[in-house]
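Thread: "does anyone have the structure for this chain?"

Original post by V.I.:
We have the sequence but no experimental structure in hand. Need at least a predicted one for the grant figures.
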Amino acid sequence: MNSGRERIERRLAAILAADVAGYSRLIGEDEEGRHAALTSLRREVSDPKIAEHRGRIVKSTGDGLLVEFPSAVDAVRCAVEIQRELTQRNAVVPEAQRIEFRRWHSRRDHHRDLAPAAAIRDRVQFELHLQGQGRPELCSKHT
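Reply from O.Q.:
Generated one for you, tokens below.
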């Protein structure tokens, strides 16, 4: 039955949102040093792992990333590998200076043209919840 409506192209996507826990405090204590450390972390760890797991960076902020993956498995594997590397790097860094990520995964059916907007909306809502907790976490949402 054709009602004259245009068919909407949809696809399942996994979204990984991550931001640095305590970023404002870290930057307030040593802006140049923490910025350099985060830039190095992106270049040496996060960005290569995202590419390795077929991710696409949708948005990058000073302390956060919004990444789309073709599968939830890719998103979780990427997050776990980044976390392992961070744990190793942080072992020699004083606790107050460690860069730790809060992460969130969402798997949902997206309209092809609206996926980034929907993901950003969900990320903002979830980050408001996480900021109240003030500690790194890994959470999943499946819709």
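V.I.: this helps a lot. The CA atoms of residues 49 and 78 lie 6 Å apart.
O.Q.: and Residues 31-52 form the longest helix (22 residues).
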